[in-house]
Design a protein that fits this description.
Rossmann fold; five-stranded mixed sheet; 37% helix; globular
């Protein structure tokens, strides 16, 4: 059975300042990138393939995590496009659109930011990536550096969480989550 490890990128200053990013291409913090190196050393021995979101915060993290393997950029691993909400403080958007959020401040499944991506579109992207990973050889172990939203959808698909449970969860930075995938190879 192939194995997949997902890791949320190192934090950014926008994360610290509670700003919606979506596909804004913010760099990871230097402190976060330094922490990534230690996480990568723990994983490196078992990995056969490495992937990253094309967004800078993820690709920079992947470069620090995976020193011994090439990293393949995959657009299906990008965060959800938040359209007009991107770059704005979460408090500001929550105050203007309270109906679009769970009580913990995460976006509800039916909410679509103006000019943004639907959740259904993002789910299709994540499903495509997971399908490709399930086609790996049974002994392979792939890792991917991605984003909070992508990991939540993957957890919904792979852990049996309800969609509401997955969307209300917040993924910690630099915490590897590993899954055994049913092989289709």
């Amino acid at each position: 059975m192939p194995k997949l490890t997902l890791i949320r990128h190192a934090p950014t200053s926008q994360n610290r300042n509670e700003v919606f990013m979506g596909v804004l291409d913010a760099p990871a913090s230097e402190e976060g990138l330094a922490a990534a190196r230690g996480v990568g050393e723990q994983l490196s021995g078992s990995l056969t393939r490495c992937y990253s979101s094309p967004l800078r915060r993820a690709s920079e993290t992947a470069e620090r995590l995976f020193l011994r393997l090439p990293v393949t950029t995959d657009p299906d691993l990008a965060e959800r496009n938040l359209g007009d909400w991107a770059g704005h403080a979460k408090k500001e958007i929550l105050a203007a659109h309270p109906e679009a959020f769970y009580p913990n401040g995460n976006i509800r499944p039916e909410a679509v930011p103006p000019g943004g991506e639907t959740l259904e579109h993002m789910i299709r992207r994540v499903d495509r990536f997971l399908s490709r990973m399930a086609e790996l050889e049974p002994e392979e172990h792939a890792a991917a550096v991605t984003h909070n939203g992508v990991i939540r959808i993957a957890r919904w698909r792979l852990e049996g969480l309800t969609l509401d449970e997955a969307l209300q969860a917040n993924e910690p930075f630099l915490k590897p989550r590993s899954f055994d995938l049913p092989s289709t190879a």
